Amino acid sequence: MSTTNAPPAAAAGNSENKVTDPVPLLELHTGAGLFWTLSQGEAQAAVTSHGMRLRADARVGYLRRAPFTGSQPIYRLRKATESAYLLTASTAERDQLTTGANPPFRYEGVIGHASATAQPGTEVLYRMRKDGVLNSWRPVLASQADALVAQGWRIDGPLGHVHPRWIRTGAIYFGVFDANGNRSMMDRIEQYYGPEAANDWWGGVRHAHDRHPKAVGHWRDEDFSHLKPAIGYYDDARPETLEKQIAQAAGAGLDHFAFYWYWNPGAADEQYATGLRSFLAARNRSDLRFTVLPCIHPWGGGAGGTLRMPSDQISRAARILVDDYLSQPNILRANDGRPMLQLCDVRGIGKPNGGPPDNTVDAAAVRQFTDAIRTRARMTLGEEVLITMTTDNGVPKPEHGLDGGYCPGRWDRQAGSYENYVAGERRFFATQLGSLIRCATSDFDERPRIGISIADPVLPGDTPEEARTKLHTSFRWYEDQSLPAFRRLLADIRADLDASTRPSTVDNFVLLYAWNEWHEGGVIEPNARDGCAYLDAVRAELRLTKGTGCVADPPAIR
Fold this sequence. Notes:
The protein is an alpha/beta fold. The chain has helices spanning 10-16, 40-50, 91-98, 142-149, 183-193, 205-209, 213-216, 239-252, 274-281, 314-326, 363-380, 418-431, 464-474, 483-498, 533-541; strands spanning 23-24, 26-29, 34-37, 53-54, 62-63, 71-79, 85-88, 105-115, 123-130, 138-141, 153-162, 168-173, 256-264, 269-271, 289-294, 340-343, 386-390, 404-406, 436-441, 509-513, 516-517, 522-523.
């Protein structure tokens, strides 16, 4: 039975058509043969309504839903007498098999679009069949064809050129490098470094780069020359800053920025959103997608006294997130088309503004928050939302209104070793069940916070060994971090993606820590010492093909 008469909900169908990136071609067993679709909704209906079985281990490549320059359509045909299907890129074959008296197949439409010629990162998608096996047609990537030929399969012909894997890579953006940023931190910078550091949101980072004795006194042999952006110390309140950063990221092939987002319970409003607002005002914003990471921390700080979100403010927060951000045309969307929201910390949701520290998760409050987001999105956008939660907060649970997890910046708690972190990351991924957005931490280094957020623990008279012990107790930094190790991490992530049988909704997404977490060392943004080295590594190891390559200091838009 055809599933084309059992479409997904209207909202889901509308959302799927808004995804312009290649999406995975899904393969299902029908009982009599195989069935293929790009639609997550159609695949779900095929399973629930028609008894088909999804082949989670199938590797059939990525196609686009809409035609593009140099593309060709791939047609889906259904056998007239049973639930078996055939794909073809030939209009002549399509018409021969589906027209005339008692045609053997029925035409079901265009399944997707492939490149007509070879493009960077693509390979041929063949149709193959095995003689003597009824309804054995199947699409096979060129890299897998020889193994099947050795098993007695034959190539019927090409269907087009497709990406065997299309990785959508984003980077966490820390949008507080402006006068509206962390005022208490700027005050502490001035207290530690003196009046000349007043209103310096780059304090600590700039001082380490310039080798100020109070910043590098304990690490005199350390090279901090990378602690300066290639575009200079910037103000992210200026859209021109974000325009340059969009050009850097999009040129390197990145797909999106993921903006940290904070709540001000004192004003019942967002805070530290200046960088995000500048992104939306950038003239080249359409070159990059974006999403929002609500960080509802349980601790004090910020202009509102704490960073918590009391229960009676959840509805207002949901309106801001949906109306101002999820409604944007370049909001990040999952492969099934749902706009995405990634929860960076949920421990402050439902907590009052004030009171003792409380690091527990209020499950009912989290559900209230996710329900409010979904209700608002259905009402104003007519869409569902995909919501994931940081693995730092535990296992995402469907009863909390969550669709999966993502991992943020990662610190090796076992040995404080970057090499140890890299070696164990695939084992960590394996502990996370269900949908997962994988992560890659470029580095972690809190030392620029000395005297600002972390007091200098060393006392006069401490021995070198005592000083070293105190510094490692107070500060986290990877002494053994290196660019080659970061490259190995990215290669491991790609291998994990290639071997994955997770749900395909976000299984090709990777989130990098971070674009510009300069005070904590997570930085892939081009810097004055290394230029585009980290973005070049991302592009090479994840085999990104969008863009023409990173430019460390791109020209301003005229």
